Protein backbone atom coordinates (compact mmCIF):
# COMPACT_ATOMS: atom_id res chain seq x y z
CA UNK A 1 0.00 0.00 0.00
CA UNK A 2 1.18 3.54 -0.73
CA UNK A 3 0.95 5.63 2.43
CA UNK A 4 1.14 9.41 2.01
CA UNK A 5 2.23 11.26 5.15
CA UNK A 6 1.08 14.88 5.58
CA UNK A 7 2.75 16.98 8.30
CA UNK A 8 1.05 19.50 10.54
CA UNK A 9 1.93 23.15 10.95
CA UNK A 10 5.63 24.15 10.92
CA UNK A 11 6.80 20.80 9.59
CA UNK A 12 7.93 19.45 6.23
CA UNK A 13 8.21 15.93 4.87
CA UNK A 14 11.48 15.33 6.68
CA UNK A 15 9.62 15.41 9.99
CA UNK A 16 8.45 11.86 9.23
CA UNK A 17 12.03 10.57 8.81
CA UNK A 18 11.95 8.25 11.83
CA UNK A 19 8.46 6.95 11.01
CA UNK A 20 9.12 5.97 7.39
CA UNK A 21 11.49 3.03 8.09
CA UNK A 22 8.92 1.20 10.21
CA UNK A 23 6.28 1.60 7.52
CA UNK A 24 8.57 0.40 4.76
CA UNK A 25 9.83 -2.53 6.85
CA UNK A 26 6.23 -3.77 6.86
CA UNK A 27 6.25 -3.83 3.04
CA UNK A 28 4.49 -0.56 2.34
CA UNK A 29 5.62 2.50 0.37
CA UNK A 30 5.84 5.66 2.47
CA UNK A 31 5.65 9.03 0.74
CA UNK A 32 6.27 11.96 3.09
CA UNK A 33 5.10 15.19 1.47
CA UNK A 34 6.30 18.75 1.95
CA UNK A 35 3.30 21.05 1.45
CA UNK A 36 3.61 24.22 -0.67
CA UNK A 37 5.40 27.00 1.18
CA UNK A 38 7.26 24.65 3.51
CA UNK A 39 10.15 24.00 1.12
CA UNK A 40 12.46 26.30 3.09
CA UNK A 41 12.43 29.13 5.60
CA UNK A 42 13.04 31.53 2.71
CA UNK A 43 10.08 30.39 0.59
CA UNK A 44 7.40 32.95 -0.23
CA UNK A 45 4.28 31.56 1.44
CA UNK A 46 2.28 34.76 1.86
CA UNK A 47 -0.28 33.84 -0.82
CA UNK A 48 -0.54 30.10 -0.21
CA UNK A 49 -3.99 28.90 0.81
CA UNK A 50 -5.41 25.84 2.49
CA UNK A 51 -6.87 24.86 -0.88
CA UNK A 52 -3.36 24.96 -2.36
CA UNK A 53 -2.31 22.34 0.19
CA UNK A 54 -5.38 20.23 -0.57
CA UNK A 55 -4.80 20.49 -4.32
CA UNK A 56 -1.16 19.45 -3.93
CA UNK A 57 -2.20 16.36 -1.98
CA UNK A 58 -4.94 15.50 -4.48
CA UNK A 59 -2.30 15.61 -7.21
CA UNK A 60 -0.29 13.01 -5.25
CA UNK A 61 -3.38 10.83 -4.92
CA UNK A 62 -4.06 11.12 -8.64
CA UNK A 63 -0.47 10.20 -9.47
CA UNK A 64 -0.74 6.87 -7.66
CA UNK A 65 -1.66 3.79 -9.67
CA UNK A 66 -4.09 2.54 -7.02
CA UNK A 67 -5.96 3.80 -3.94
CA UNK A 68 -3.75 5.20 -1.20
CA UNK A 69 -3.77 5.67 2.56
CA UNK A 70 -3.54 9.27 3.75
CA UNK A 71 -2.03 10.15 7.12
CA UNK A 72 -2.50 13.68 8.47
CA UNK A 73 -0.87 15.01 11.61
CA UNK A 74 -2.52 17.88 13.50
CA UNK A 75 -3.25 20.69 11.02
CA UNK A 76 -2.58 18.23 8.20
CA UNK A 77 -5.92 16.68 9.11
CA UNK A 78 -7.76 19.40 7.20
CA UNK A 79 -5.62 18.72 4.15
CA UNK A 80 -6.33 15.00 4.34
CA UNK A 81 -10.05 15.69 4.85
CA UNK A 82 -10.08 17.90 1.77
CA UNK A 83 -8.33 15.27 -0.33
CA UNK A 84 -10.64 12.49 0.91
CA UNK A 85 -13.60 14.67 -0.05
CA UNK A 86 -12.14 15.35 -3.50
CA UNK A 87 -11.20 11.70 -4.17
CA UNK A 88 -13.27 9.45 -1.88
CA UNK A 89 -12.92 6.53 -4.26
CA UNK A 90 -9.11 6.84 -4.29
CA UNK A 91 -8.51 6.91 -0.53
CA UNK A 92 -8.45 3.44 1.03
CA UNK A 93 -8.15 4.81 4.57
CA UNK A 94 -7.62 8.18 6.24
CA UNK A 95 -5.49 8.19 9.39
CA UNK A 96 -5.44 11.22 11.69
CA UNK A 97 -2.63 11.69 14.20
CA UNK A 98 -3.70 13.62 17.32
CA UNK A 99 -6.42 15.11 15.17
CA UNK A 100 -9.63 14.09 13.48
CA UNK A 101 -11.43 14.61 10.20
CA UNK A 102 -12.39 18.23 9.61
CA UNK A 103 -15.88 19.21 8.56
CA UNK A 104 -17.27 21.78 6.14
CA UNK A 105 -16.14 25.26 7.16
CA UNK A 106 -13.57 23.92 9.62
CA UNK A 107 -10.57 26.10 10.45
CA UNK A 108 -7.23 24.76 11.67
CA UNK A 109 -6.49 27.59 14.10
CA UNK A 110 -7.19 31.28 13.58
CA UNK A 111 -5.72 32.36 16.92
CA UNK A 112 -2.03 31.77 16.19
CA UNK A 113 0.01 34.99 15.85
CA UNK A 114 0.94 35.72 12.23
CA UNK A 115 3.61 37.95 10.73
CA UNK A 116 3.63 39.01 7.06
CA UNK A 117 1.37 36.21 5.90
CA UNK A 118 3.06 33.43 7.81
CA UNK A 119 2.89 31.86 11.27
CA UNK A 120 6.20 31.20 13.02
CA UNK A 121 6.41 28.43 15.59
CA UNK A 122 5.31 30.07 18.85
CA UNK A 123 6.98 29.61 22.18
CA UNK A 124 6.13 26.09 23.31
CA UNK A 125 4.75 27.52 26.53
CA UNK A 126 1.68 28.39 24.45
CA UNK A 127 0.79 24.68 24.27
CA UNK A 128 -0.97 22.60 26.92
CA UNK A 129 1.09 20.27 29.11
CA UNK A 130 -0.36 17.05 27.59
CA UNK A 131 0.74 18.24 24.15
CA UNK A 132 4.33 18.55 25.35
CA UNK A 133 4.52 15.09 26.92
CA UNK A 134 7.79 13.26 26.14
CA UNK A 135 9.16 16.32 24.34
CA UNK A 136 12.41 16.55 26.29
CA UNK A 137 15.08 19.20 25.96
CA UNK A 138 16.87 17.49 23.08
CA UNK A 139 13.68 16.88 21.11
CA UNK A 140 12.51 20.43 21.78
CA UNK A 141 15.76 21.76 20.33
CA UNK A 142 15.36 19.46 17.33
CA UNK A 143 11.78 20.60 16.81
CA UNK A 144 12.82 24.25 16.88
CA UNK A 145 15.67 23.56 14.45
CA UNK A 146 13.37 21.90 11.89
CA UNK A 147 10.40 24.28 12.29
CA UNK A 148 9.44 26.37 9.26
CA UNK A 149 6.81 29.14 9.39
CA UNK A 150 3.46 27.97 8.04
CA UNK A 151 1.38 29.94 5.53
CA UNK A 152 -1.14 31.97 7.48
CA UNK A 153 -4.08 31.10 5.24
CA UNK A 154 -3.52 27.36 5.67
CA UNK A 155 -4.38 27.91 9.31
CA UNK A 156 -7.18 30.46 8.89
CA UNK A 157 -9.02 29.54 5.66
CA UNK A 158 -12.25 27.55 6.08
CA UNK A 159 -12.23 24.08 4.57
CA UNK A 160 -14.83 23.47 1.86
CA UNK A 161 -16.22 19.97 1.36
CA UNK A 162 -18.85 18.85 -1.15
CA UNK A 163 -18.98 15.06 -1.45
CA UNK A 164 -20.72 13.04 1.26
CA UNK A 165 -18.97 9.91 -0.02
CA UNK A 166 -16.14 11.04 2.25
CA UNK A 167 -18.12 9.41 5.07
CA UNK A 168 -17.52 6.04 3.38
CA UNK A 169 -13.73 6.33 3.73
CA UNK A 170 -12.48 4.08 6.57
CA UNK A 171 -11.00 6.30 9.25
CA UNK A 172 -8.49 5.85 12.07
CA UNK A 173 -7.72 8.37 14.78
CA UNK A 174 -4.42 7.80 16.59
CA UNK A 175 -5.02 9.52 19.91
CA UNK A 176 -1.87 10.81 21.55
CA UNK A 177 -2.22 13.94 23.71
CA UNK A 178 -6.00 13.49 24.02
CA UNK A 179 -6.93 10.01 25.29
CA UNK A 180 -9.22 7.89 23.18
CA UNK A 181 -11.71 7.47 26.03
CA UNK A 182 -12.15 11.23 26.20
CA UNK A 183 -12.79 11.36 22.46
CA UNK A 184 -15.42 8.66 22.86
CA UNK A 185 -17.05 10.71 25.59
CA UNK A 186 -17.04 13.71 23.25
CA UNK A 187 -18.75 11.61 20.57
CA UNK A 188 -21.39 10.41 23.02
CA UNK A 189 -22.03 14.00 24.08
CA UNK A 190 -22.19 15.43 20.56
CA UNK A 191 -19.12 17.62 21.02
CA UNK A 192 -18.41 19.69 17.87
CA UNK A 193 -14.71 18.68 17.89
CA UNK A 194 -15.67 15.12 16.89
CA UNK A 195 -18.83 15.82 14.90
CA UNK A 196 -17.27 14.89 11.56
CA UNK A 197 -15.63 11.79 13.02
CA UNK A 198 -18.95 10.60 14.44
CA UNK A 199 -20.46 10.73 10.97
CA UNK A 200 -17.93 8.32 9.50
CA UNK A 201 -19.47 4.94 8.71
CA UNK A 202 -16.30 3.04 9.66
CA UNK A 203 -14.03 4.62 12.23
CA UNK A 204 -11.75 3.55 15.05
CA UNK A 205 -9.81 5.31 17.79
CA UNK A 206 -6.50 3.83 18.92
CA UNK A 207 -4.35 5.13 21.74
CA UNK A 208 -0.67 6.04 21.56
CA UNK A 209 -0.04 7.89 24.83
CA UNK A 210 2.49 10.68 24.23
CA UNK A 211 2.41 14.35 23.26
CA UNK A 212 1.20 16.15 20.17
CA UNK A 213 4.24 15.31 18.05
CA UNK A 214 4.55 11.50 18.15
CA UNK A 215 6.65 11.49 14.98
CA UNK A 216 9.34 12.99 17.23
CA UNK A 217 8.55 11.44 20.62
CA UNK A 218 7.32 7.94 19.64
CA UNK A 219 8.20 7.41 15.96
CA UNK A 220 8.60 3.63 16.12
CA UNK A 221 5.29 3.23 17.92
CA UNK A 222 3.59 5.65 15.53
CA UNK A 223 4.83 3.66 12.53
CA UNK A 224 3.46 0.48 14.13
CA UNK A 225 0.07 2.11 14.75
CA UNK A 226 -0.11 3.30 11.13
CA UNK A 227 0.84 -0.15 9.82
CA UNK A 228 -1.74 -1.82 12.07
CA UNK A 229 -4.46 0.50 10.75
CA UNK A 230 -3.41 -0.18 7.16
CA UNK A 231 -3.46 -3.92 7.82
CA UNK A 232 -7.10 -3.57 8.87
CA UNK A 233 -7.92 -1.95 5.51
CA UNK A 234 -9.57 -4.30 3.03
What does this structure look like?
By secondary structure, this protein is of the alpha/beta class. It has one domain (2-231): Alpha/Beta hydrolase fold, catalytic domain (Rossmann fold, 3-Layer(aba) Sandwich), CATH 3.40.50. It has helices spanning 20-25, 50-63, 76-86, 137-146, 152-156, 180-188, 195-198, 214-217, 219-231; strands spanning 2-6, 29-32, 68-73, 91-97, 118-119, 150-151, 171-175, 203-207. The strands form two sheets. A six-stranded parallel β-sheet has the order 2-1-3-4-7-8, with helices on both faces. α3 (76-86) links the parallel β3 and β4. α2 crosses α3 (76-86). It starts with a strand and ends with a helix. 44% of the residues are buried. The model has no long low-confidence stretch (mean pLDDT 97). This is Esterase. Residues 3-225 form the AB hydrolase-1 domain. It holds the Pfam family Abhydrolase_6. InterPro entries: AB_hydrolase_1, AB_hydrolase_fold, Sec-Metab_Biosynth_Hydrolase. One of its GO terms (molecular function) is catalytic activity.
Approximate helicity band: 25-40%
User: How many domains is the backbone divided into?
Assistant: 1
CATH topology, anyone? Rossmann fold
Distance between the termini: 11 Å
Amino acid sequence: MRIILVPGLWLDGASWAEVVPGIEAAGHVAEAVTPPGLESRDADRSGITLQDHVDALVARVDAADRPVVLVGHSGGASVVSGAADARPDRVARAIYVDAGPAGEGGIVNDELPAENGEIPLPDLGAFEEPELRDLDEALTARFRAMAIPSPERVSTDPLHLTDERRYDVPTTVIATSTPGDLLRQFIAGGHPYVRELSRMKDYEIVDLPTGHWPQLTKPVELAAAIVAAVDRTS
